[in-house]
């Protein structure tokens, strides 16, 4: 086997990589002409210059072992030209090419390659080094390398997770930086130069690292046809896109997931029996989730959909188009502390992994938290815990993440945006949490109501302390996952019928099959409490516009007229306390601020079917309220 060509037997491409049609080897660079093509160049063609002669000489130097025979044939071919080369330039080219080809080491004179040295690459010119290193990566020369959104990443063993027992690790992903890539290349790629021994004439290999510029250039490549794509890491079994269960450790090409089992899991039956379904349903719906004080049956149904979602997400995405789809968020709220909001949210984190962090009211800090939580995700859920009592959640970064499967964002300390895979469930927990218009339609509610002054004193959980139940015994976590998968498999085998819930639109890919899943299990009320129009902003705008319409009908008014009329009429103004604009009609800044407030709600239809319109009259904006058309 020739050095520099490792061969498929020693360095096979990863078996999980699906075959692809390769591009032409010569794509992007000129093809070397054959000897016959060179001789076919017309005798009077100016192309028969020094470059042409050098190409012919290269073919003949590789053919002959005798210098005289080589020169004779080269002279014969050159004489076919209308103007042959003069003797001086002819011999200079002939000898130069002959020396170059003869200096190349033969296979017999090379030092044998030791496979333990790594994938061998002979250092040549910069372009060759880059191509050869790309080929090595596409051939699996460096283990545990994957591609995410066009970027090479490395799967490694993380021993630093404080939630794991001392000395235990779990798989994690890190993008290749120049330094990290250099370390991997040093460990798995054998770069060398060939040095001729002046005494023996043999060629020795001298190890030598490539230039950093070569590594940076290779990392800048965006196309990696031989590197398997990595969607994410799961520590528990999940459904694949085709509805089968991923329960074999390692990389799974069908789902794009890497299964790093946290413990041993029981095999999930392909066709669960009625008894298995009943036992699984009782454990999840009654024993684990049954002890929370749900305000309504809709809240309980929504909680079940949230808690069981993680194992079935890839199947639901596959039923749409297979790509990353964003789920709606879950707003777990109550009227007081100690009702169990965080416990309910953490059921998914304890069983399928995830991140929990305190909600930050500062919008800039919260945006940083949202971005870093997704970038450093460790499971199926991100919980933004302890939203301040009665706080209105209006963060635009969170709103954007809830509508994008692969959002772009800039990490702290970096100068360019990176694309992330948004396949987590975003959860809020808080008392009386309110949602802005943008976020209201992106969340569904799970409301808890203990109907007592001190709900923390409740003790209604069949399994006792859920945190201890799941965190102290992995087999309990494994049982919960097994039960969820049994329920999902039963629904898949039955045909995976969908239903029509209240939440549709861009979240239909998730809500329709989830509604069908709950219908199959006999769980009523899913999304019955979903009302995208019931936002915190609506609490102010609906009475304001209702009073406006009652007072003025469709009369067109300038914003300053609205403000002045409110002040001039005092308490008997007809607004009943609903007026929400600044009140100083003589202050230009207040009038401008009032105009900005109105401009942001033009043409929006509210739950009372009223809509505000605007038009210019005599160079000024006028506003009026009317009934929206059905």
What does this structure look like?
With 630 residues, the chain is an alpha/beta fold. It is built from 20 helices and 22 strands. A five-stranded parallel beta sheet has the order 13-14-18-12-20, sandwiched between helices. The chain has a three-stranded mixed beta sheet with strand order 1-5-6. Helix 3 packs across helix 4 and helix 9 runs parallel beside helix 11 (341-352). The chain is extended, with a radius of gyration of 35 Å. Mean pLDDT is 86; it is low at 1-30.
What layout of secondary structure does this protein have?
Blueprint: H1 35-39, H2 50-63, H3 67-78, H4 87-102, E1 119-122, H5 126-138, E2 145-148, E3 151-158, E4 170-175, H6 178-188, E5 189-196, E6 203-207, H7 212-219, E7 232-234, E8 238-239, E9 245-246, E10 250-252, E11 257-259, H8 274-288, H9 297-308, H10 313-320, E12 329-334, H11 341-352, E13 354-358, H12 363-375, E14 381-387, E15 392-393, H13 396-401, E16 408-409, E17 418-419, E18 425-431, E19 434-435, H14 437-440, E20 443-448, H15 466-471, H16 474-493, H17 508-521, H18 536-552, H19 559-568, H20 588-599, E21 610-617, E22 620-627
Parallel strand pairs: 1-5, 7-11, 12-18, 12-20, 13-14, 14-18, 15-19
Antiparallel strand pairs: 2-3, 3-4, 5-6, 8-9, 10-11, 16-17, 21-22
Helix pairs in contact: 2-3, 2-4, 3-4, 5-7, 8-16, 9-11
